[in-house]
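Can anyone check this?
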Amino acid sequence: MTALRDIVVVLDGSAASETRLDIAIALAQQHNAYLTGLSALDLLTPARPVVQSRSSPETDAPPESALLNLGVTRPYDYSDADTQAAEKVEGIEAAFRERLRLSGVSGECRVVSGKVSEAVVRQARHADLSILGQVDPNHPLSPADRQLIEDVLLTSGRPILVIPYIGRFERFGTNTLVAWNNSREAARAVQDAIPLLAKATAVTILAVNPGGREAATDDATLADLIHHLARHGIRATPARTVAGDIPVSDALLNYAADVNADLLVAGSYGHSRLRERIFGSTTHELLQHLTLPVLMSHQV
C-alpha cells in the first residue's frame, strides 16, 4: 500500500478535535483520500440507529442512496434528544462539511451512537487509517471515552493515528521516528506506516536497549528493515539509544524530542497482566505521556 485512500477522523467539538481535523484534511489532500468524520457523541438510545450517513457536496451518491445508507435508517430526528447536545452535533457536522468544501476533499460526516467504541471500530475496519485523540485527563467524561483508543487498536485490525490533546502540530510526518524491536507488532506498524513514510523527508529507525539487558534487536535486523524500506523508495537511517532507569516509552519520547521528530511509529507491545498483557505497559505509558502524533498497530 503506497497511499491512503480511506481515512476516518473522530470529532467531538473540542479544540483538540480541530487539531485532529487539520491533520486529517492535510492527509486526505496529500493522498487524495476519502475522509469520513465521525461525531462520536453518545446522544441516542441504543434502540436508535447506530450510524447515520450524510453525504458531502463532493460525494457523487445522494444522501438517500442505497450505497451510503445500506442497513441505516433515514437521518434521525433530534426533536426528542437533548437540545444542547443535538446542536453540538449539528455544529460539528456543519463545520466538517465546510472544511471539506474549502479544502476540496471528498467525504461525509456520520453520527455514531450507542457504545462509541463499537461504532468507531466498525467504521475503522474498512478504512486505511483512523485518527483519534489522546484522552484528556482534565475531561474524563469526554465522549471519546478512556477505552476508545485501546478498543479500536485491539479489535479493528487497522492502524490508528493518535493525536496528543495538547499542541497544534502544524508540521506532521516530515521527520518520522520508527520504534523497532524486531517484534511482529513493530513489523506490522512499519508496514501500515509505509504510505506515511514514503512522504517523509527523514526516517529514523530507533532500537531502544532497556538498560542492563540484552539489546532488543541486532544490527542485522535493522539493516534488513532499512533495505526493505529502500525497496519502497524510503531512505531510512538506523539509530540506537539506551533506556537506562527510565521506561522505554520515555526513552522513545525523549529521542523524538532530541531529533525534532513530528511523527512516531510504534507497534502496540509490552508486558503486564490482564488487559496490559495484551496491550502492553509500554503502549499504555506512551499514550499517557504522548508529546507528538503516533501511528500504532496491533498484531494479534
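Reply from J.R.: I decoded it. Residues 175-297 form a domain with the Rossmann fold fold (CATH 3.40.50.620).
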